[in-house]
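ok new one. same drill as before - structure tokens go in, u give me an amino acid for every spot. 466 of them this time. try not to just spam alanines like last time pls lmao
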């Protein structure tokens, strides 16, 4: 649990000052820094870790975006309006439509700018569609990994002249007449430093690593595996609240019902969406897996030993191998194989007959012979065929989606709608577009907020810093 928010009056002058300062060197912070440099404004990024990693490095690195040139090349018909409709439908109309429209409109141009100006080699995931998306719109770098995404952003930032100071944990905000004027931070040797700024961007994600806040806002996952960065302690939210900022949807979050157990590796949801299913240790299904991997986390955690098996086949495994995490899981032996279902059941250590009955039920629904008892729309989905594959998984909390309320310039707002001068937020520090719970999370919403709001915040901070 972080210490109580430390907000202090700014000194008359700072020994060191920069035009714009960013807390956090994940996708949001680095994108903001690149946007500042594109405007000709100096940027300093303070990162608590020894290298820029954050929750971005733990993700699949996929960013949803409409109307991109990569979609056009693949013949995909999409638009920001269609994307907004998908966001609002998934979250039952809870997100602010204006914020969803801002993100959907900004993210495609941001990806093309990162590609053209900084050489990030994005391409479209064109062989399966994520749940809730009406079009193929996930974009990623060649390895389809968050590690590559944050590494490439960090290299681009350094090449652009961004100063990234690592092992610098921000502890204090300095204000004058209600405006942000600087920060204080500590170093590993116990020393502290302060630096002044004219604009501050909070890009230090949410509170997923803070067990007390998780228990308060997401009680269903209070004991879940946390698959985000341990540094996500909620300082941005605590600082914002101490400054009188508005917050929204603090219970919003991304869970994931498919983290390999005990290997701790994310297993792509393509294993389910391409025709696989999840069964518990008795070999029986327990939910409609297709509603989304975020809400599936809590469902998996209700099963015996808080685990389940994702069952698929060799065809789906081939699709999943485009993701580096899946290849790692195979190399570690987390994915078990069986030339027939009986062999697979033995290697899963689940009873063979219930598993066979479950598979038969799923395949009958795919053929349209019987409705799926959980309401999953399976008719016409490709059948599973031997040889089979399975991976034991658990549910996990990835990151929180609620946070500080921001406007169309990523300025942090007070409850009356007035901005706090000099303060911006992006990524997980800002309230996203997933609504108040897990079920509103649309695949990619985290990096959508990081990339779109990161660039918006950088441009706005550049204007403020001038």
């Amino acid at each position: 649990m972080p210490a109580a928010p430390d907000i202090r009056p700014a000194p008359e002058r700072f020994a060191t000052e920069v035009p714009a300062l960013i807390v956090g060197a994940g996708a949001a912070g680095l994108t903001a820094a690149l946007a500042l440099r594109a405007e000709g404004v100096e940027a300093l990024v303070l990162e608590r870790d020894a290298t820029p990693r954050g929750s971005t490095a733990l993700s699949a690195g996929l960013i949803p975006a409409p109307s991109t040139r990569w979609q056009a090349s693949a013949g995909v018909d999409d638009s920001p309006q269609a994307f907004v409709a998908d966001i609002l439908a998934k979250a039952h109309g809870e997100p602010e439509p204006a914020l969803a429209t801002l993100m959907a409109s900004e993210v495609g141009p941001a990806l093309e700018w990162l590609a053209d100006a900084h050489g990030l080699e994005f391409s479209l995931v064109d062989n399966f569609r994520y749940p809730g998306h009406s079009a193929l719109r996930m974009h990623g770098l060649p390895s389809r990994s968050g590690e590559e995404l944050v590494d490439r952003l960090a290299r681009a930032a350094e090449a652009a002249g961004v100063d990234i100071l690592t092992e610098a944990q921000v502890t204090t905000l300095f204000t004058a007449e209600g405006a942000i004027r600087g920060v204080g931070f500590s170093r590993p040797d116990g020393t502290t430093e302060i630096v002044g700024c004219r604009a501050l961007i909070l890009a230090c994600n949410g509170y997923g690593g803070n067990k007390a806040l998780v228990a308060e806002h997401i009680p269903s996952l209070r004991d879940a595996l946390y698959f985000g960065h341990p540094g996500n302690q909620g300082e941005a939210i605590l600082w914002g609240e101490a400054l009188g900022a508005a917050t929204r949807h603090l219970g919003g979050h991304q869970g994931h019902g498919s983290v390999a157990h005990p290997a701790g590796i994310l297993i792509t949801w393509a294993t389910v969406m391409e025709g696989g299913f999840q069964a518990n240790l008795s070999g029986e299904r327990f939910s409609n897996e297709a509603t989304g991997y975020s809400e599936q986390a809590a469902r998996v955690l209700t099963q015996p030993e808080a685990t389940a098996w994702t069952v698929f086949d060799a065809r789906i495994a081939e699709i999943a191998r485009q993701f580096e995490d899946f290849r790692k899981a195979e190399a570690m032996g987390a994915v078990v194989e069986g030339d027939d279902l009986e062999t697979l059941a033995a290697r899963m250590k689940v009873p063979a007959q219930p598993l066979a009955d479950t598979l038969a039920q799923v395949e009958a629904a795919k053929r349209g012979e019987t409705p799926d008892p959980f309401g999953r729309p399976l008719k016409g989905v490709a059948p599973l065929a031997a040889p089979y594959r399975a991976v034991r998984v658990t549910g996990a909390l990835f990151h929180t989606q609620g946070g500080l309320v921001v406007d169309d310039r990523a300025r942090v707002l007070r409850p009356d709608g007035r901005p706090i001068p000099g303060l911006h937020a992006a990524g997980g520090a800002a309230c996203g577009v997933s609504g108040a719970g897990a079920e509103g999370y649309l695949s990619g919403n985290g990096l959508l907020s990081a990339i779109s709001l990161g660039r918006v915040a950088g441009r706005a901070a550049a204007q403020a810093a001038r």
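DSSP finds 14 helices and 20 strands in the chain. and btw The longest strand covers residues 388-400.
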